[in-house]
Automatic annotation (TrEMBL):
Record-level Gene Ontology MF annotations: iron ion binding; tRNA N(6)-L-threonylcarbamoyladenine synthase activity
Highest taxon, organism lineage: Bacteria
Broad EC category: transferase
The keyword Coiled coil appears for this protein: no
Gene designation per UniProt: tsaD
The protein, known as: tRNA N6-adenosine threonylcarbamoyltransferase
Main location class: cytoplasm
Gene source species: Vulgatibacter incomptus
Gene3D superfamilies registered for this protein in UniProt: 3.30.420.40
Length: 332
């Protein structure tokens, strides 16, 4: 029985997971309204809100699961990567709970949590598979050879896909979180209206780059003004297509090159409708089975940390004990 805590960015989350597969509870407190007025996450505000929300969220997770702290076997907590202040809140609470209950505590890499979140989906494939992580802070390709064995095949060289969505949305005056708004508006837009650049398109590489897309979007607005009505929908559809085109094409190509027959979408931006649609379409055309998990497993949650914590503990992890510390730049 694992209690998982997640506070790496702007979601305060806790969950109780049994045997690394069954979520008995999964509670998430969002900070969207707090950060919306600023157009993005303010680290200090995120940390302060975690302080206020983390214990009520933990209490609710235990209550929904029908267990007490003494029933927990392991406490798993995100210790990186992420915002240092936010990470420290969850980390200190996790260590305190483990100490009070006399239970072991294990640190979890946030990216491993995303890769293993699919274990709570009955239809999820077992390793080996290629994991495409697309989120606000990461756009990465990992060969998941087994649980605990991950090989980085490609990553963003500058901005992540989620950051590109949010920055373009802010440029357009759309509310935070911008990626959700762009996805909504793009449904009635023409994805071919504007040919935005595809980063690193002509180089044989698994890496990503979205800074050029942001710059192109800025120049287009400067030259043509802020789009309105149908023009706004076309603009959003074109930006979304540029991002979806790159991430799905590179992911499918990397899976084929690595000899991996399965591709799994992970991370908050994997909830984007066009990325999900195009990944399945391109996977089918290339003989790659694409697993698209439920959206609730894509966004940050405590259950994915509990699952990864279970696997870490099963492999003998957790030796740091109460000396466990945050690592905001921890590479998987």
């Amino acid at each position: 029985m694992v209690l998982g805590l997640e506070t790496s960015c702007d979601e305060t989350a806790a969950a109780v997971v049994r045997d690394g597969r069954e979520a008995l509870s999964d509670v998430v407190s969002t900070q969207i309204e707090i950060h919306r007025r600023w157009g993005g996450v303010v680290p200090e505000l995120a940390s302060r809100n975690h302080v206020l929300q983390v214990m009520p969220v933990v209490d609710e997770a235990l209550e929904r699961a029908g267990v007490r702290l003494r029933d927990i076997d392991v406490v798993a907590v995100t210790s990186g990567p992420g915002l240092i202040g936010a990470l420290l809140v969850g980390l200190q609470v996790g260590k305190s709970l483990a100490y009070a209950a006399g239970k072991p505590v294990v640190g979890v890499n946030h990216l491993e949590g995303h890769l293993l979140a699919i274990r709570m989906d009955e239809q999820a494939p077992e390793p080996p598979f290629l994991g495409l992580i697309v989120s606000g802070g990461h756009t990465s390709l990992y060969a998941v050879e087994d649980y605990g064995r991950y090989r980085l095949l490609g990553a963003t060289l500058d901005d992540a896909a989620g950051e590109a969505f949010d920055k373009v949305a802010r440029l357009l005056g759309l509310p935070y979180p911008g990626g959700v708004e762009i996805d909504r508006l793009a449904r009635t837009g023409d994805p071919k209206a504007i040919r935005f650049p595809r980063g690193l398109n002509k180089r044989k590489t698994n890496d990503f780059s979205f800074s050029g897309l942001k710059t192109a979007a800025l120049y287009h607005v400067q030259q043509h003004g802020l789009p309105q009505g149908q023009a706004l929908a076309d603009f959003c559809a074109s930006v979304q297509e540029a991002i979806a085109d790159v991430v799905t094409r590179k992911a499918v190509a990397a899976a084929k090159e690595a000899g991996l027959p399965r591709l799994v979408l992970c991370g908050g931006v994997a909830a984007n409708s066009r990325i999900r649609e195009l990944a399945v379409e391109r996977g089918a055309a290339s003989g790659i089975h694409v697993h698209v998990p439920p959206k609730r497993l894509c966004t940050d949650n405590g259950a994915m940390i509990a699952v990864a914590g279970y696997e870490t503990f099963r492999r003998g992890g957790g030796a740091e004990g109460l000396a466990l510390n945050a690592n905001p730049s921890w590479r998987l």
